[in-house]
């Protein structure tokens, strides 16, 4: 009869008795939030978690665009990967929207001077378009489908101050290719197909009825748009990570627009105090199921623009100041708080539009009644 062998496990007397290399090997396998939590567990983990290499691995896993050598040098110059992660992993929230008053905004066109509306020129001189770097990563169902880096703001140095007075907008796919030649992973097109997880779509007519492709695209896409200011050495993620909404079949039956974004502070820059940073992605259906070809989508647009409460585009001058302020505003790791901030802005914006329509309706009725009264008075005196 065989006797069972008793397994003996040598007890660990203390954490200090374990090898530092073992600790490092454990920590390098963790994601960012878990690594940050482990750093609070004990002194050994806290000490090792300061290693830049650990945070570089975390950043490269979360944002593949940070694998580029020029981006690594940029991150090192602004404080390192640990600081970069701490700045860019939490998302921007803005609860000052609730303090917004319609009457204050409704009167700004008469009360604000041009100098007040367009900003302080001395302050603007301290902000240069070349200071900003956009680091963009797009994922679909966890797989990275696009990584681009844009140095500076395109066309910002055009003649006659065109950029500063016209609506601010960045079209990433139009300009980023100029700086991505060294990547080796950019062929100029981003394609999604059934192999990436898209559902089979027999026809666009069927898609209009059930919206299956739209739901899969909206729920599966994730966007990170990090803006870095090299001069002040600050960075922030302006995206909401998951989609906030979008439009089906706009402007054609084959186009889908997915919207991300955040609410940015504009205190002392614009009278509305807060603005919306709108990040849009547009996909076009280039193939549906049939004739041996599977459902295929092509990414045709990735853009950023800023809009005020009335939906008006913010000009380049004010956008630079707002972007600079956004890099130091409040952030949160709680995604529900981020969504609450965006939904609160949408709610207030809708209330403002309704109030404006009511005021315009009252004014129209007043004009009509005044016209009728003038007409009756005129004929009264004539007759």
TrEMBL record:
Query: InterPro entries under this entry?
Result: AT3G44326-like, F-box-like_dom_sf
Name of this chain's protein: F-box protein
């Amino acid at each position: 009869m065989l006797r069972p062998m008793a397994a003996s496990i040598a007890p660990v007397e203390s954490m200090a008795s374990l090898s530092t290399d073992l600790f490092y090997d454990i920590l390098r396998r963790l994601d960012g939030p878990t690594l940050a939590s482990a750093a609070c567990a004990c002194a050994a983990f806290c000490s090792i978690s300061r290693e830049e290499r650990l945070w570089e691995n975390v950043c490269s896993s979360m944002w593949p665009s940070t694998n580029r050598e020029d981006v690594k040098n940029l991150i090192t110059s602004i404080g390192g990967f640990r600081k970069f992660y701490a700045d860019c992993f939490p998302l921007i929230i803005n609860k000052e929207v609730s303090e917004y008053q319609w009457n204050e905004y409704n009167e700004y066109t008469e009360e604000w001077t041009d100098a007040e509306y367009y900003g302080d020129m001395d302050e603007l001189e301290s902000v240069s378009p070349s200071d900003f770097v956009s680091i963009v990563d797009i994922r679909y169902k966890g797989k990275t489908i696009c990584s681009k880096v844009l140095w500076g703001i395109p066309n910002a140095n055009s003649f006659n101050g065109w950029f500063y007075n016209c609506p601010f907008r960045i079209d990433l796919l139009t300009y980023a290719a100029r700086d991505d030649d060294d990547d080796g992973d950019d062929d100029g097109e981003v394609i999604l197909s059934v192999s990436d997880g898209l559902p089979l779509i027999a026809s666009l007519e069927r898609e209009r009825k059930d919206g299956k492709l739209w739901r899969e695209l909206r729920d599966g896409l994730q966007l990170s748009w990090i803006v870095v200011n090299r001069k002040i050495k600050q960075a922030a993620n302006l995206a909401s990570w998951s989609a906030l909404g979008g439009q089906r079949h706009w402007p054609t039956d084959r186009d889908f627009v997915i919207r991300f974004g955040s609410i940015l502070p504009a205190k002392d820059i614009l009278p509305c105090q807060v603005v919306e940073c709108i990040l849009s992605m547009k996909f076009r259906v280039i193939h549906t199921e049939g004739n041996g070809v599977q459902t295929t989508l092509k990414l045709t647009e990735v853009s950023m623009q800023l809009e005020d409460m009335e939906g008006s585009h913010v000009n380049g001058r004010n956008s630079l100041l707002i972007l600079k302020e956004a890099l130091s505003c409040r952030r949160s790791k709680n995604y529900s708080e981020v969504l609450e901030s965006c939904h609160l802005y949408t709610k207030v914006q809708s209330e403002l539009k309704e109030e404006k329509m009511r005021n315009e309706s009252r004014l129209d009725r007043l004009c009509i009644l005044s016209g009728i009264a003038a007409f009756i008075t005129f004929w009264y005196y004539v007759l």
